[in-house]
Amino acid sequence: MSVKEIVVLPGDGIGPEVTKEALNILETVCKRHGHQLKTKSYAFGGASIDQFGRPLTQETIDACKDASAVLLGAVGGEQWNNEPKDKRPEAALLGIRKELDLYANLRPIKTYDSLIHASPLKPEIVSGVDIMIVRELTGGIYFGRPRLIEKTETGERGVDTKVYTTEEIERVTHTAFETAAKRNRRVTSVDKSNVLDASRLWRQVVIESASQWPEIELNHMLVDNCAMQLVRDPSQFDVILTGNMFGDILSDEASMITGSIGMLPSASIGKEYAMYEPVHGSAPDIAGQNKANPLATIASVALMCRHSLDMPDAAQEIEEAIETTLQDGFRTGDIASGDPDEYLVSTTEMGSAVLKHLNPDLQPGTFL
Ligand SMILES: NC(=O)C1=CN([C@@H]2O[C@H](COP(=O)(O)OP(=O)(O)OC[C@H]3O[C@@H](n4cnc5c(N)ncnc54)[C@H](O)[C@@H]3O)[C@@H](O)[C@H]2O)C=CC1
Ligand SMILES: CC(C)CC(=O)C(=O)O
Ligand SMILES: [Mg+2]
């Protein structure tokens, strides 16, 4: 038996609601596979501002570095929007990614057959889609300096800076190609090299690095075209490799191929540490109402089992349990299509429905 020590950063809004469901699942699979799960939660983002006056504390950073893996919910909310930029909840998220050097964010976009009608796109467009977005996570315009708003003679001027170095591009390219080698061996690198110098360097370094993987097909696409192609013909993509902001935007867009942003998990990986986080934010519009879809966070725990906890069987079991739960017809509001065979369920009910497939001791219908 081994002990799996997990740090949990529930964060704000729906963050605590979805992490709670995911932890129930993690605890169950750990037990099932003879491991002991130890978790410790830390206030993070807005919750940390309220408790400690800052979004991310040194104690939290140290705890994350000592853990086998980190599970994050989401941060942010209207009440903290007027804080100075380094005191906003989002600064905790950018801060922990940087502190742990989590430079590659893997965002799988895979359609479930039973959710084909939940997507606003036509069934023949979304059927069979299986994309992995590899997003650079610790560089680019979210981190570049200078970054400021300053007075001018006529008003004000806001500045952000997009910076990428050779090393930053090389290491995330490595992740993308290694990922593609285990999939369908195609990488589409997405940039804006017709306008931006940082993107011109991006393309050049990707081309140079690609020579290490002659068996992998590489093509390049400008980001505006990619946004369009994701809706026109998403099946053309295998691995999409892109920078921080482009990856952020394209993955929210791509989530609708699956039916909802509430379905997309992610793994943020570095050389030493890893953090698992749903792609969505704190969803203040549904927070505290037991309405959020917990499947993105539950699927993130599956990624954690595979990549950090050496529990690949558990990962597969969780993924199969999600699939079966959807086949059974359970739907939170975001993925409901109004079909009479569906059961509209809450966050906790969805979590229990998945759990039921992993824990034979639970009676069918326990939560209903
Ligand atoms: N990783 C993180 O912590 C992120 C934090 N944010 C923060 O979250 C706050 C809200 O941002 P938004 O732009 O509204 O993005 P959001 O992703 O929180 O919500 C966008 C829309 O999707 C819905 N949604 C999101 N997750 C859902 C789920 N699990 N189940 C069902 N519906 C779901 C929401 O109800 C909302 O209508 C902001 O403060 C933002 O900065 C935004 C994105 C990522
Ligand atoms: C603070 C933002 C960069 C969070 C976000 O939208 C994301 O990482 O997807
Ligand atoms: Mg985002």
TrEMBL record:
Residues 5-354 form the Isopropylmalate dehydrogenase-like domain. GO terms for molecular function: 3-isopropylmalate dehydrogenase activity. Mg(2+) binds at residues 224, 248, 252. NAD(+) binds at residues 77-90, 281-293. Binds 1 Mg(2+) or Mn(2+) ion per subunit. Its cofactor is Mg(2+); Mn(2+). Substrate binds at residues 97, 107, 135, 224. This is 3-isopropylmalate dehydrogenase. It comes from Fodinibius salsisoli. The lineage of its organism: Bacteria, Pseudomonadati, Balneolota, Balneolia, Balneolales.
